[in-house]
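Hallway conversation turned thread

IA: we were arguing at lunch whether anyone had actually written out Peroxiredoxin end to end. Turns out nobody had. So, for the record, here is the sequence (212 residues) and right after it the C-alpha cells. Reply here if something looks off.
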Amino acid sequence: MVALRLGDTVPNFTQASTDGEINFYDWAGDSWVVLFSHPADYTPVCTTELGTVAKLKPEFDKRNVKVIALSVDDVNSHQGWVGDIEETQGTKLNYPILADPDKKVSDLYDMIHPNANAKVTVRTVFIIDPSKKLRLSMTYPPSAGRNFEEILRVIDSLQLTDNYSVATPADWKDGDDVVVVPTIPTDEAKQKFPKGVTELKPYLRMTPQPNK
C-alpha cells in the first residue's frame, strides 16, 4: 500500500454509512470534503470530536465543505454510538459516519499503521478539494483530540490561496495580512495588490488579504 501524498487523486469507494450506502465521489460532488477517521466506536476522545464537528457544521457548510467520519465498526454499532454522542455532546449528528468493518477504506487511505495498532485505524484528517485531490492530511495519536478550528483555518487558507497569488503566514486567520508569493516581482505585486505591498525582505512581502 502506497501512502496518499498531497496532490494525489484520492481513491473512490462505495461503503455503508449511517446515512445509507455512499459512493464517495458521487456524495462529494463539487464540494470540498473533510474525511476524518476514528479507531473504533464508543471511544471517548472521538465522541467529543464527532459532537464538535456537528456543532461546527454550519461553518463547514459556509465554505462548501462536506464532512464525513469513518470508524472500522459496522452501521449497527455506529447507530448506537450516535445516541451516546447526541446525549453527551448536546447536539444532533448531522453528517454520515462510514462503516468500514472490512477495512476497505482504511486500506485505500493507508489508515492502518501496524506499529501503532494493526487492528484499528489511526486518527487522520484528510482535506480533499472538489477535483478529488488530497490537499492536507494530519494524523493524531489516540490521546490528543483534534482541533477543528485549525482545520477550518487551513480550509480558509487553501481556498484563498487557490484563487489569489498569496500564501498565509504562521498563525494566520481569515482577515489577517497575507504573503505575496515569491514568484511575483515586487513591481508587479504592487499593481496586482492595490491595497499595498510591504517589503520586509525581497522574498518576504506582505499585503492585506485581497478578498476582504
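OS: looked through it. The CA atoms of residues 157 and 168 lie 6 Å apart.
IA: good, adding that to the notes. The chain has two domains: 14-145, 164-207.
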